Amino acid sequence: TVAARPSTALAFVSQRSNPHLLFLGGSRLLPHLRTMSSLSSHRVALCQFCVGEDKEANVEKAFSFIKRAAEQQAKLCVLPEIWNGPYATAAFREYGETLPDVGSNDVSASPSARMLQTCAKQYSMWIVGGSVSEVTSDGKVYNTCLVFNPAGEIVAKHRKLHLFDIDVPGGVTFRESDTLTPGQSLSAFDTGDDLFGSIGDWNMVRAQEEIVWVMRWARQIISRYCLCLPPSYDIRFPEYALLLHKKHRCKLLIYPGAFNLTTGPAHWELLQRARAVDGQCFVLTASPARSPQPDTAGRYPHYTAWGHSTIVAPWGDIVATTGEAEALVVADLDMAKVDEMRQSIPTSLQKRTDVYQLDQP
After folding, report:
1. Considering the entire predicted model, what is its pTM?
2. pLDDT above 70: residue 6
3. 131-153 per-position pLDDT tens digit
4. Do the Cβ atoms of 126 and 159 come closer than 8 Å?
5. Which one, of 55, 88, 84, lies nearest residue 179 by Cα?
6. Residue 227: band (very low, low, confident or very high) from pLDDT cuts 50, 70, 90
7. Among 3, 35, 274, 336, which one has the highest count of C-beta atoms within 10 angstroms of its own C-beta?
8. Would you tell me how many other CB atoms lie within 10 Å of the CB of residue 274?
């Protein structure tokens, strides 16, 4: 397990980073703001494990990592991209499953989804199910992510929008479009009060009038959290992340990914930090662990994942990360830092819509 300490509250109450809050209440507010910051800290876990050709073994491995995350008291758990079978275009259809839509919780046709639902209910945990291959009734194959709430209900279903079609000379060639069909919609889900909750006990505030006012004002901003799901290759498209931010005011972007040894060392961390700063939000990425090249060739070409599952804060700094081996990355996110960043550098209020606009068709 790779653990990170909770982010401190110092940046949240410093005059340099947030003079507006200090102006409202002065130094008398500092203890209360520190309390708000600590109460908004919540634990997440990223599961990074090796994936092989045995689907049953992959499902069992994912279950064991979710269990470990629960033992670490994580409230949200993220799995990697294509975790129930080989990351190979020829394998997507074979390992594909029939996945239910939001509003239908019948997972009987999907052993992968059935395990995720069971874990969500058993451990009372939000689970972002990475992605698995989905085969629909019309024969199309998608790279699909399901999200389960602690009641085991499917609250989001995302089909990967941008397919991984690249040809890097001397590096790697891969064409997801040989098998996969791209998705057609944005995906987000609101955790409401279940995951992040309200900040503090507002009826118990008995301080000066301005403190009560600031706490109520902060509650309006911080009390609900919207998370968005653009897997892997979608991270290369800033317009998508910006549109999610514009439409949903997302506080977390979650990217289950499977970068390789060509793109991983060059762009994996760079893109995460860029999306975090663009959206002034946390970015979570979960990758498969790096599997060793087998001595004998399997049924499908071996794909070597970069690993390095990572959590990035709104300022662009790394909260927690790991290497290429199997690991459980655990960190406490100080969600007050999202609002701190958006108030300190209010780019969402400074858009020149008279010159340019980001529109959704």
Report:
1. 0.80
2. no
3. 999 999 999 999 999 999 999 99
4. no
5. 88
6. low
7. 336
8. 18
